[in-house]
Design a protein that fits this description.
- This protein is α/β, with parallel strands linked by helices.
- Helix content is 44%, strand content 15%.
- The protein contains eight helices and eight strands.
- It has an eight-stranded mixed sheet with strand order 1-8-7-6-5-2-3-4, sandwiched between helices.
- Helix 3 links the parallel strand 2 and strand 3.
- Helix 2 packs parallel to helix 3 and helix 4 runs parallel beside helix 5.
- The longest helix has 28 residues.
- The chain is globular.
- The relative contact order is 0.17.
Length: 256
Amino acid sequence: MASLGYEEPKGNIHLRREVCTYLKTIGIEADPSSILITSGVLQALQLISLALLHTNSVVYVEKPSYLYSLRTFQSFGMQLSGIKLDEEGIEIKELVDRHRRRKGAMLFTIPTFQNPTGSVMSLDRRKTLVDECDRERLLIIEDDVYRELWFDEQPPQPIKAFDNNGLVLYIGGISKNLSPGLRIGWIVGSEKVIERLADIKMQTDYGTSSLSQNVTTELFSSGLYYQHNDIMRKNVKLRRDVALEALKKYFTGIGT
């Protein structure tokens, strides 16, 4: 029987290994020592704010962005600076120009199914963003929690997949596609940064639920997680099609 005691500071080692296996399927090579299991994505942002940012630090965000993530940064006293989006994603020229004036600490981005716009950053824009942020020494927080919600076409690889210098802190989890109640998320970053975040997490809650971690490990290792995603995508596509048909049937011509 798996232990229900306290887990390692970074999280259950078996779960971290399963996360590594999953990350390989989307183009990210990571070691278990570079992964921290969190109690959801929101806690990941809280830990980053506590460990790596300071009061009045400037955080660049997409305009618009996910309201509750913005409130997390604001609750820690951060200054938010909005950068416009175009059809390919965040406008890099505006970001670089703003950064050279304000010298912000980080960029927070949701490149895949951006909330609230639903847009997907293009592959070329992702590569260019990493290169420009590397040149400007600007760290990136990549929130990729919506990745598995695709159904017509698989989205491009995460920004983290093109990160060769530990520039990107990658955040993922199972809240949006599987179970918000399990409260399982993860941060992928350099081992030194992950150790710092793990230390603060242990001081905060002494570790994510061991029961939730064991359940999630089993879902990954048994293949049920991947099977669930396939079924979920078919159901979401069906719901999308029904909604579009209803809009076409009942709303065609309104406002013309």
